[in-house]
Amino acid sequence: MCECRNCNHCDKKDDSLTVSRRKVMAWSIGAINLAVFGAVFGPVLGFLGSPLKARTKKEWVPVCGLDELEPGKTKEVTYVVRVKDGYTMADHRYALFLKREANEVVAIDPACTHLGCKVQYQEKQGRYLCPCHGGVFDTEGNVVSGPPPKALLRHAVEVRDGQVFVQRNA
Amino acid sequence: MAREVITPEKPADVTHPPMEPVEELRVERPSLRDWTDLRLGWWGFVRKNLDEPMPPGVGWWQTLGNLLLTLLMFQFVTGFALAMFYAPSPQSAYESVVHITTQVPLGSFVRGLHVWGSTLIVVVTVLHILRVFFWGSYKKPRELTWLVGVLIFNVILGFSFTGYLLPWDQKAYWATVVGTRIAATVPFVGHDLLVLIRGGEEVGALTLTRFYAIHVMLLPAALMGLTAIHLYLVRRLHIAGPVLPQKGKPVPFFPVQLFRDAVVVLVGLGMLVYLAAAFPPAIEAMADPAGTDFSPRPEWYFLGLYELLKIMPQGFEVVATVIVPGLVSLGMLFLPWLDRSSSRHPAMRASIIVAGTAVCLMIGLMTLKGILETPPPHGESHSEPAQTHAMRVE
Ligand code: HEM
Ligand code: FES
Question: Cβ separation of B199 and A86 shorter than 8 Å?
Fold first, then answer.
């Protein structure tokens, strides 16, 4: 019987290897395989995980003129920011709800705090409605009903020379 | 035709005795068939599969696996064709799909085959799972056939989730915004997971390349490997047959069962071709993060989950996003070990049958609810959902 077990080619007993030499080789093969796996998956996983390290910085971006906002009313504006999107710089269009009260402007982000759908403002009811799972927010952005866990996000706002700026990731 | 078998002279120093079939085929002028068989063992393989014994009682319900295999090959071929015209970047993805749909000859049809094929695969996979479930065919020794099957099912859902983004239209973009946010509800690591899946904080260029690479490289490779194991196990362990053994002798796979398979493939593909030709998939407006009045909808077979999200009270979304789907997946995965009865007869494993049926009914009803509440596809009634919600508020 052949004892090397992985061939059926000979009927000779292969005694050229001692048990310990066989063991050393088997372990080395295992170790080399591990090293090969590590060499492939180590760099690849690091590469794929790189977005975790990317840092975003906050920037002030102009969104509209103060005179475009009627006091006491909520208005949806869209603005464009040049952002780094992976391998390119791209002009991204974002929406924002601006509410002017006396001389203060509140900027409410339209992303529903539940799972990120864009909420729509119903002026008559004074409510933000989420078309996805029925989240409802009041004019301040606080949750009225539905699944959203917290109030709509507010951006920091500054008014300079009649121009409204908000702070956001860029 | 007389064949002269050459008995090989065994040189003294050759220690490798030739294997049997090789010996048989050492004819002087072999036919093409013998020539290939000597090298590949192909005909033996084919013969073995055609002669595969089918226990009495195997019939139409056992044709679904084969239909799935055919549908998968269709997906592979049509997907390859689409990839030749598709460009995965936010600047070009939408345009390239519009080009495929409106300019490329037969483009709309090929895209239709791929889109409808994905839906048919989900339907047929579910039927295949149900048939295996009710027949109890996942029981010993077929536990791993089932387990690999569940992995395949998850790969299929992965295909549809990643594929849905590729056209980069409104539907694609918003379904992905919401779908990936589901990952963020995972406790502790949620945000990191979200960034890893999206390739950044927002759904953008890197999300698209990630999804594309997964859709056309990772998942096909995984699917092929898993399907190969699945089929190997199906053949190795043979088909289980009806829950109670029937009288009669096993029948070879060819011709009766293979004929049934062929008929079902004809019907299935007939449906696919009809759907692709009669209802070519549309494309909506291009993805717009600031777009107003759009109400996102996932692919129809995720609508059950979508409805579940709607009825979850505030703060409990993790139940709908992680706990329920997780429990269902784990339950499916380990079904052969949850169901410990030795009999495959439904009456002997009533609790499992009842539990399984209940889960299926729930999923079915939730999906139906989602379908009924979904506005007619492709945009005519964009403003409608807002009205429905408006009524709910009052
Ligand atoms: C791409 C997807 C799949 C393909 C191509 C496939 C293919 C097949 C084929 C050809 C058979 C034998 C004929 C038949 O019973 O229909 C089979 C049997 C089986 N399949 Fe699948 N299958 C797939 C998915 C699944 C899934 C998702 C599951 C379970 C979750 C599953 C579980 C099983 C089991 C347990 C058997 C053995 C049935 C028996 O012995 O009676 N399969 N499959
Ligand atoms: S995303 Fe707004 S309610 Fe779910």
Answer: yes
